[in-house]
């Protein structure tokens, strides 16, 4: 005999404002199997939970239906409450009458009717629920961090600090990310390298941290606590264990015309290179596209000069497999390509640069040793125009619809640094809005205007035209004065929008972690679970989740580390018991289910069956590996015999819901 | 029955990871769509057996919509590819049986697309309302007296 209890939550006025909760409880109390129905202001509160527990004990309930907010909010809360009153936690179903009813309907009558139907469906389902117990799987006590920017570095350091092993996979030859490229950092103006490189060295020296630089993730299998990850170590043609990072090879290499990617192509370097002086690991890499030896088999200079014998022209990509309990994504960002913004003459004139290029031009380790010179003729610029929001907040389709968040602040920084070092240089900033919400941010921007005399003009730059005399004619509008302006500039700096790294999309597919329409990774909950991906065991750190500056990146990085540590300290994880199982009597061993299972969870076993004529027969039947099955249900639909079913979402349960809704 | 009074019965299957969350987001943002839509949560769009859809029509549903993650984004990697293939077949078969193609639909709605969810549901309800009641597969014997 079913004894079902129904609990209707008011959620303050969130539900009760549009749904007549008393009427819902009353209507549902007449449903078959229902022996108890009540309403309460906040079911999730302690007293609300006690109401549920008491009713379970008092009426010996066999199933519980809570009409409340989304199960994504409080399913676990109510399951725990049921379990503490002695009812199996999977005997609880939730009717979502807030997100999918009271919040979207205005009319009381309509919303109440719908709430009753949703409640009815949940009752019909719970009547067919079966008690389930989660099995336990061990946790691999090692974490993987993908991306070695400041986000990945901070996360790895924090995890290692708690005593767990961490691997960093970085696709570039060195860790450091964008922060290694920038010069000074807002809002304090301390030098980026001075605060970053000690952390990079800490990573290299920490015995719990292993850095796979110049490597990529190739495959991800498994699930929370038990991931198996394939890593490709790309051939750098230098034996990492032998190279001492002395740099002699880079001096002697004759292929000096190789674009220096670390300086964003603003100058050149040799074909064998170490990206920058403080690179970690400090190991040389050969750029195969430019090395004469690798391309034509002629040269071999570096191998002759290397006293450590580290050069290996025959090195191959290496494929490694490692096991991890948790994975942190920290793949960061890049400025967008400016192909869609012809009006700023970025492709035509070398004196039109992006802000990141400006960072290199101003950096003491950059192409001009820190003296700001025009890229075209290496002269001192007297007038510089900054253009904000190039491709940010752009709904035209050319750029990105979102605000890149960091540009207002770094432009204020650039303007200030330039005015400080070169007081004879006039600086104009064209902006749509100046957005400086952050600790000491607005003060920082005001200093640029008030103390450093930077000309901030609210308005848009229409066109940048390179002139015969080498100047750039900037046509713009001043919206506040209502004037058209023409400025003869020596340099134009574009605050290009930032976007997630291009490799993030394929990584998301491998990790089955979801992304938003802009390819930023989605968090499990925008407010309450900001550093976890909806996929268990995958965590998010840094700009891969959304635009942010360094302080925010570091905060999120440490938060992600805390979540990872919380996972790795557990010895065992409870796994989801809503998994597939085959009815052996019905299964004919056809393999249809095995072919669709994305996890390879289905194997076959030979079973002995008693036949009606008292003989026995051995048949091959499907068997689901409970630790591997993730409960997608693909197999249940593929099965032609109707033998495969999914616990918690069985054919019977779903059809009961359909029936209840259509009644 | 005049069209204005006709309230279609619509069953919406939503996968737990994207579309159900998208529907939640529509709610959080207070985006209205008709109350005729009733959502059934499934782990993945590939959990939806064609039988469930036939059952809905048999029990008098006027439209059935199936929502999953965008292709490539399925939480279980490939589930929605199965869905896409299975539903293409099923919907043509239903069409052959006289259940207009417009009464069935597959949509990809991500967890971030609350606005899309509401828009899809408004549009679907409008389409089904215009088609009117569906009697083709309805089994009257299933109705309670
Ligand atoms: C011009 C400019 C100036 C700035 N100035 C400031 C400032 O003054 N103050 C401030 O607070 N912030 C500033 N910022 C913002 C700052 O750069 C970022 O907040 C910070 O770099 C974010 O760190 P991250 O680790 O998330 O990303 P990143 O620095 O982009 O690091 C990501 C790392 O992951 C690696 N990676 C990417 N994909 C993969 C993959 N598939 N596999 C392996 N590795 C991968 C990348 O190679 C990179 O090393 C500035 C940004 C710009 C563009
Ligand atoms: S439900 Fe079936 S197809 Fe999905 S993971 Fe489990 S066994 Fe594989
Ligand atoms: S698809 Fe069904 S019948 Fe075929 S092997 Fe799997 S469970 Fe058995
Ligand atoms: S989980 Fe959404 S379609 Fe598979």
Structural topology:
The complex is a heterodimer of chains A (663) and B (145).
Chain A: E1 4-9, H1 21-28, E2 34-40, H2 46-59, E3 63-68, H3 71-84, E4 92-96, H4 98-102, H5 108-126, E5 136-138, E6 142-146, H6 150-161, E7 165-169, E8 184-185, E9 190-191, H7 192-205, E10 209-212, E11 215-223, E12 226-233, H8 248-252, E13 258-259, E14 268-269, E15 272-273, E16 285-286, H9 292-296, H10 301-305, E17 318-324, E18 326-329, E19 333-335, E20 352-354, H11 355-362, E21 383-390, H12 407-421, E22 426-431, H13 441-450, E23 455-458, E24 461-466, E25 472-478, E26 483-489, E27 491-496, E28 498-500, H14 504-511, E29 538-540, H15 550-568, E30 572-574, E31 580-582, H16 592-596, E32 602-610, E33 616-624, H17 634-638, E34 644-646, H18 651-662
Parallel strand pairs in A: 1-2, 1-3, 3-4, 6-7, 6-18, 7-10, 18-29, 20-27, 21-22, 21-27, 22-23
Antiparallel strand pairs in A: 5-30, 8-9, 11-12, 12-17, 13-14, 15-16, 19-28, 24-25, 25-26, 31-34, 32-33
Helix pairs in contact in A: 1-5, 2-3, 5-18, 6-7, 6-15, 12-13
Chain B: E1 10-15, H1 19-28, E2 37-42, H2 50-58, E3 63-68, H3 79-96, E4 104-108, H4 114-131
Parallel strand pairs in B: 1-2, 1-3, 3-4
Helix pairs in contact in B: 1-4
The structure holds flavin-adenine dinucleotide, iron/sulfur cluster (2 copies) and FE2/S2 (inorganic) cluster.
